[in-house]
Amino acid sequence: MDRKAFHLGDVVEMKKGHPCGTNAWKVIRMGMDIRMKCTGCGHSVLLPRSRFEKRLRKILIHADPPDE
To answer: Which InterPro entries does the UniProt record give (predicted)?
Structure first.
């Protein structure tokens, strides 16, 4: 299975929607765990990277990749 490349600041769509009615999340922290923030209500969720990658459907808005 292909791994989707996501970066800090990307807005992603997950398989299950949030109870507030939106399905768009902004990635606000990356590491072993991924913290994402709901774009509708602002609720923040912390998921292990493996669970995040399984539930990720697609990347809606790409953030500018960091300069290296």
So the answer is: DUF951
H or E, element range at 56: strand 56-61
pLDDT above 90: residue 63: no
Using CA atoms, how far residue 42 sits from 9, 16, 24, 28, 65, in Å, is 14, 16, 11, 11, 23
- Amino acid identity of residue 47, one-letter, is L
Whether 37 contacts 20, CB under 8 Å:
no
What's the pLDDT score for residue 64? 76
Q: Residue 44 forms beta bridges with which residues?
A: 37
What number is the average pLDDT over the span 1-22?
A: 85
Measured CA to CA in angstroms, residue 55 lies from 4, 59, 64, 68 at distances of 11, 12, 23, 28
pLDDT tens figures, 32-61: 999 999 999 999 999 999 999 999 999 999
